[in-house]
């Protein structure tokens, strides 16, 4: 029986006493009822009073736990703030890659529980919102103009007060004027110094504005306006050009762009072409006026057009001159297409690299000698066969490519019958002779000999007397102009339009 009785006893749990039975769940209304609250208060007993030493022990333990938890929370918050500031600093460096910079200082976490033992190297920023060394603003003078009484009276003209006011007013200068910070310094500027700085700041602002406006104006000249851009887009859409690569040269009258050629039905387009965009500004028109107003080819049209439309005539003039030169087999760009003030020509160069100008290329003595003879032959052919005078020939308008000299920029070229045609020719001869003589070419002629060799005229050469030579040229031009007006014929020994023999000089039929 005893064994049976022992066997029937409930075995003890190895984890201690069994948990009491779970109280049945009650609804929210039961929990909120006052009767249930009183019942729970009676079962749990009254709250221990403060006089009880055991209660003080319990409170001290709870306060200790709360203080340690607060310190742990503050340390975690501080670590979080540091990580946030580091991330913000990295984002700030990503933005500050150009000349302008921004600051995220106002977004950084300024934690009040910063560790006092941390070094200054860990923080590379400074919060100046509450800077104790920042200079206070000067006190304003009352409306009556003075403050104090008797010997302590201070007027608005006081030297110290004015000096501090002037220092504070420096903050109103333009941002580009660096005035410094001056924190913690009692700086005083006299009226004379402040007025000088103010006037200098104003002058610098005006000068900067003028330079900026001038730069924008020059940029608009070197770039293309909306109408020119539209013409270039139409060329690309029509297949004349594959793409426009960029600007390769800028001059006083035009801008040259490089482009990849496309196709035309009438004629083939080179693989590489250039777009010569003539500037449409009125300032450049004054320089074009003498070259076009007396050209018989455009004289009738010149009087009927406004200055802006004459730019198209100027581009057309260069196209016709290039066609004449190409027919005479003079090395020059080939005119492909003309659209208003845009002239498409073949590219003198290779693989997007333009040919160098004759003034920039380094040639040996033999090559420079050959270049001189090439230029001499081209000037003679241009005058005698093409019936043209370049009128702006110099080392700046001659290119060296594939062992040959190439002529460019012939928009201002005129015929010898132009009232100033021979003067333009003599100026070209002076430029060419001066350049090759500087390059120590022994075969280079002086300007007078070169002029006679090109034109075929036999003007007597004085002993370095340029004035007499120029007067002879002017007299010859005057005689030719009168003869052209009476008979409509040329008196210069140049070939006629139909390829006939040259006319004899000084003969009046």
From TrEMBL:
Residue ranges, compositional bias (Basic and acidic residues): 126-137
A molecular-function term among this protein's GO annotations: metal ion binding
UniProt cross-references to Pfam families, sorted A to Z: RIO1
Cellular localization per UniProt: Cytoplasm
GO cellular component: cytoplasm
Residues annotated as domain RIO kinase: 213-456
Skewed-composition ranges (Acidic residues): 115-125
Keywords carried by this UniProt record: Antiviral defense, ATP-binding, Cytoplasm, Immunity, Innate immunity, Kinase, Magnesium, Metal-binding, Nucleotide-binding, Phosphoprotein, Ribosome biogenesis, Serine/threonine-protein kinase, Transferase
The keyword Cytoplasm is annotated on this UniProt entry: yes
Keyword Nucleotidyltransferase attributed: no
Reactions the enzyme catalyzes: L-seryl-[protein] + ATP = O-phospho-L-seryl-[protein] + ADP + H(+); L-threonyl-[protein] + ATP = O-phospho-L-threonyl-[protein] + ADP + H(+)
Enzyme class: transferase
InterPro entries in UniProt: Kinase-like_dom_sf, RIO-type_Ser/Thr_kinase, RIO_dom, RIO_kinase, RIO_kinase_CS, Ser/Thr_kinase_Rio3
PROSITE patterns linked to this entry: RIO1
Entry EC no(s): 2.7.11.1
Region (Disordered): 115-154, 484-509
GO BP, one annotated term: ribosome biogenesis
Requisite cofactors: Mg(2+)
Family membership noted in the UniProt record: Belongs to the protein kinase superfamily. RIO-type Ser/Thr kinase family.
Subunit record text: Interacts with CASP10. Interacts with IRF3; RIOK3 probably mediates the interaction of TBK1 with IRF3. Associated with 40S pre-ribosomal particles.
Record protein name field: Serine/threonine-protein kinase RIO3
Protein's organism: Takifugu rubripes
